């Protein structure tokens, strides 16, 4: 029950943060708009990072197909953002998407290293046990 309640609260905070980030321009003006936008960004980042550490989401985000999608899609968007957007917006979008793409790429390299080490260990154990005979029960 406690886990369900904490998940509901985190998802609610995440959605409130996203809503404040996106919709503040339609409702507010000037400094209030900026405060609501940056506050919404901070709230959604904080709640989103806590959500990403929970088990179902964490295992989904660290799967190889999702990492490949994040790596390729964000890499293409980062490259296109530099050409499609002008000035600071283009640089910021390209940098943000590029960081996500690099993070997914490092995740792919780490999962590859883990898989390779596990295979070597199993192969070494198999070679060590080939020459041994185990007694069979009579």
Q: How many DSSP E strands?
A: 0
Principal-axes shape call? flat
Strand content: under 5%
Q: Figure out the total of helices.
A: 5
Q: Radius of gyration in whole Å, from Cα?
A: 23 Å
Query: How far from one another are the termini?
Result: 53 Å
Category from helices, strands and their pairing: mainly alpha
| Helix-strand topology string | HHHHH
Estimate the helix proportion, in percent: over 70%
- Unreliable parts: 123-127
How is the biggest beta sheet arranged? none
Mean pLDDT across all amino acids: 82
Write the layout of secondary structure elements.
Blueprint: H1 2-27, H2 30-52, H3 55-61, H4 64-84, H5 87-130
Helix pairs in contact: 1-2, 4-5
How does this model look, in words?
The structure is a single chain. The chain is an all-alpha fold. Helices cover 88% and strands 0% of the residues. The chain is built from 5 helices and no strands. Residues 123-127 have low confidence and may be disordered.
């Amino acid at each position: 029950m406690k886990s369900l309640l904490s998940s509901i609260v985190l998802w609610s905070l995440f959605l409130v943060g996203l809503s404040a980030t996106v919709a503040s321009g339609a409702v507010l003006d000037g400094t209030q708009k900026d405060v609501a936008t940056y506050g919404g960004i901070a709230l959604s980042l904080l709640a989103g990072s806590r959500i990403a550490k929970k088990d179902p989401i964490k295992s989904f985000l660290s799967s190889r197909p999702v990492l490949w999608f994040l790596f390729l899609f964000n890499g293409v968007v980062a490259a296109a953002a530099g050409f499609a957007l002008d000035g600071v917006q283009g640089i910021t979008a390209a940098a943000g998407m590029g960081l996500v793409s690099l993070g997914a790429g490092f995740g792919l390299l780490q999962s590859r290293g883990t898989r390779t080490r596990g295979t070597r260990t199993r192969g070494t154990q198999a070679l060590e046990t080939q020459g041994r005979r185990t007694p069979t029960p009579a």
